[in-house]
Write a structure and sequence with these properties.
Blueprint (H helix, E strand, L loop, with lengths): L1 H12 L35 E7 L14 H8 L9 H15 L3 E4 L9 H16 L4 E3 L12 E4 L2 E4 L5 H7 L10 E2 L6 E6 L2 E5 L15 H13 L3 E5 L20 H10 L4 E4 L6 E3 L6 E3 L9 E8 L2 E8 L2 H7 L5 H4 L1 H22 L6 H20 L9 H7 L7 H8 L9 E5 L4
Parallel strand pairs: 1-2, 2-3, 8-9, 9-10, 10-12
Antiparallel strand pairs: 1-13, 4-5, 6-7, 7-8, 11-12, 13-14, 14-15
Helix pairs in contact: 3-4, 6-7, 10-11, 11-12
């Protein structure tokens, strides 16, 4: 019983990347059609130092699909902490930041949209076109929010109206200029493909959301092994990308988070020496490196502190580090007078932490034998713990020990067990990774 309570609680706290349900939603709608054929490899850049920006879980919604009215506001306020009221500004700020930083490549690893609406996808593709017009290639794969969503909707006032969501074929048509049509190799079953980034660097974009839900189709494993084998023969280093995670990052919370048949992909990655897997989906900045290939989950671009990853690849190896997107700086540069945008980082942090505070306070309120002041300290401490966990930052547990002792007195485990499960993670900085390869 205790383990079931703990698993439920952890699922609640970890602000999962599941779809926000609308009344009568049944989940995914059937997909149809066959994948389009690619055009062949893109020209690679000579490897000296190669810079990649990676981001995930933007959850963009087109401005024409919401009036920021009562229904939409309630939907996002009591959800999972995504800063949806400012998602247009986040997307614009990110687009402009990418153009100004001028990396060699941009990778978006799924959940491009809030609820899979076609209009959100076409608007998102227009932003990516601005990046490519600046001479920066963009690669995308779908997430679980992007294809065949019956939750795709337009929000007006107190109501919503369902709108079309793309199938796998239409998704690849919308984003054809952002990877698929320039692929070095394309999986004939799923939307997976490879892209040559340099003289010895191959990007593997693994699609686990169109050919199958939360899995790589079994028929795709032959293609996967073939491209990895050929990469090893060419002495190419490989960076893999997926939406869902390659490994279990938390043993109490992994169903629907980890790729269902991940062990098969992980075994091939280890066999052929893949350097790194980039993932997302959890909305949490977290590195799992206890297995053969490190799996770096970048936190959601839509969630405070709005991380994206900067990867620098050189002959010596690879360095990954997070960057925070400053929407307030972007707003000031554009002469905005919106006080929310000008103080965006504080607004966004408060928006995110109030979500966690509501959950923790509700749990503390139901606990017997504690004073009002003790319950307040318990909730405040849980916000600190969970916020640090999601940001991937270390936390001195001595600063919350008294409140954690109170949580440990709550029958059934609950938050005390949750904190114990992540204690080791809170001792580590998950925002940085260095891999040495020692190429001459």
């Amino acid at each position: 019983m205790k383990s079931r309570i703990f698993a439920w609680l952890l699922a609640l706290i970890l602000l999962s990347a599941c779809a926000l349900a609308l009344p009568g939603e049944s989940g995914r709608v059937p997909l149809g059609g066959e994948p389009e054929k690619g055009k062949g490899p893109a020209a690679g850049k000579e490897m000296k130092e190669y810079r990649i920006i990676t981001a995930t879980d933007l959850h963009y919604i087109s401005p024409v699909l919401t009036d920021q009215g009562e229904y939409f506001t309630n939907l996002v306020t009591y959800a999972d902490g995504k800063a949806m009221p400012c998602i247009e500004e986040i997307a614009e700020a990110f687009t402009d930041r990418v153009i100004s930083e001028a990396p060699d490549l941009v990778i978006l690893s799924g959940d491009l949209t809030f609820n899979g609406a076609v209009k959100s996808h076409t608007d998102m593709a227009a932003k990516l076109s601005r990046i490519e017009k600046a001479g920066i290639p963009v690669l995308v794969i779908p997430g679980n929010h992007d294809i065949g969503r019956s939750s795709a909707a337009m929000f007006r006032g107190k109501n919503f109206t369902r709108v079309p969501s793309p199938d796998a074929v239409l998704f690849r048509r919308i984003y054809r200029d952002f990877g698929p049509d320039e692929a070095a190799s394309r999986d004939p079953v799923s939307g997976s493909y490879t892209w040559r980034a340099g003289e010895d660097l191959l990007i593997l974009m693994l699609d686990t959301n169109s050919g199958a839900e939360n899995a790589l189709p079994e028929a795709s494993f032959a293609w996967l092994e073939q491209v990895l084998s050929e990469a090893r023969e060419r002495k190419e280093r490989v960076i893999a990308v997926s939406h869902q995670n390659l490994y279990i990052h938390n043993k109490a919370y992994f169903r629907g988070v980890v790729i269902d048949n991940a062990p098969g992909a992980a075994a091939l990655y280890e066999k052929y020496g893949v350097l790194l897997n980039l993932s997302g989906h959890m909305h949490m900045q977290h590195l799992e490196e206890d297995y053969g290939v490190p799996d770096m989950a970048t936190s959601s671009l839509a969630v405070y502190p709005h991380h994206y990853g900067l990867i620098t690849v050189s002959k010596e190896g690879l360095v990954y580090e997070t960057r925070d997107l400053s929407v307030s700086a972007w707003a000031r540069e554009r002469g905005s007078e919106d006080p929310r945008l000008l103080d965006f980082e504080n607004w966004s942090r408060t928006f995110f932490e109030k979500t966690m505070e509501r959950q923790a306070a509700a749990r503390a309120a139901g606990a017997e034998g504690f004073t009002k002041a003790e319950k307040k300290r318990m909730a405040e401490a849980m916000v600190r713990v969970t916020s640090a966990y999601f940001r991937g930052e270390p936390l001195d547990m001595d600063t919350v020990r008294e409140a954690m002792d109170l949580w440990n007195r709550v029958p059934g485990g609950g938050y005390g067990a949750y904190v114990e499960s992540i204690r080791r993670d809170l001792e580590k900085d998950h925002r940085h990774l260095e891999i040495r390869t020692g190429r001459d």
